[in-house]
From TrEMBL:
One of its GO terms (molecular function) is glutathione specific gamma-glutamylcyclotransferase activity. GO terms for biological process: glutathione catabolic process. Keywords: Lyase, Transferase. Catalyzes the cleavage of glutathione into 5-oxo-L-proline and a Cys-Gly dipeptide. Acts specifically on glutathione, but not on other gamma-glutamyl peptides. SUPFAM superfamilies: Gamma-glutamyl cyclotransferase-like. Belongs to the gamma-glutamylcyclotransferase family. ChaC subfamily. This is Gamma-glutamylcyclotransferase. It comes from Nyctibius grandis. It catalyses: glutathione = L-cysteinylglycine + 5-oxo-L-proline. GO terms for cellular component: cytoplasm. Its EC number is 4.3.2.7. CDD domains: GGCT_like (cd06661).
């Protein structure tokens, strides 16, 4: 079946905003290889700008923030779908999959990560999309089962 890449979390520039996530440290030969891969995937093909931002690790022994490279979507990003209702986003996610897997798994894993590792973030938008998706899934399953019976 043809690939239809789904929705992914996209950082949009907002000087006063805070984003929760994971930072990866690369060293030595990993640096050039990682930057080459990310620059091609995110900047050249994906329509993202790169920025250095302060990253505050959650560990209690972290003395001060470290600089981290982030990729921020531009309005010119060819894959950017723009704003939509939680229900519309959930409907897009249900029918989307790509080389990395199904978009449903991406959403559910992201929601779990945020719930367990960043409970203070309270990302209502994300959890509303998850809720909308979960409410649609039984309808989709029932429809497919009904089609097989006829």
């Amino acid at each position: 079946s043809p690939s239809q890449p789904g929705r992914v979390v996209t950082l949009l520039e907002d000087c006063g905003a805070c984003t929760w996530g994971v930072a990866y440290e690369v060293r030595g030969e990993q640096i050039a290889a990682s930057l080459q891969y990310l620059n091609m995937r995110e900047a050249v093909l994906g329509g993202y700008d790169t920025k250095l931002v302060k990253f505050h690790p959650q560990e209690k022994d972290a003395e001060e923030p470290i600089l981290a490279l982030v990729y921020i979507a531009t309005p010119q990003n060819p894959s950017y779908l723009g704003p939509a209702s939680e229900e519309d986003i959930a409907a897009q996610i249900i029918v989307s999959s790509g080389c990395a897997g199904h978009n449903i798994e991406y959403l559910l894993r992201l929601a779990d990560f945020m719930r367990y590792f960043c409970p203070q973030a309270e990302d209502q938008h994300l959890f509303s999309i998850e809720e909308a998706l979960i409410s649609i899934l039984p309808c989709l399953y029932y429809t497919e089962e009904s089609l097989e019976e006829t």
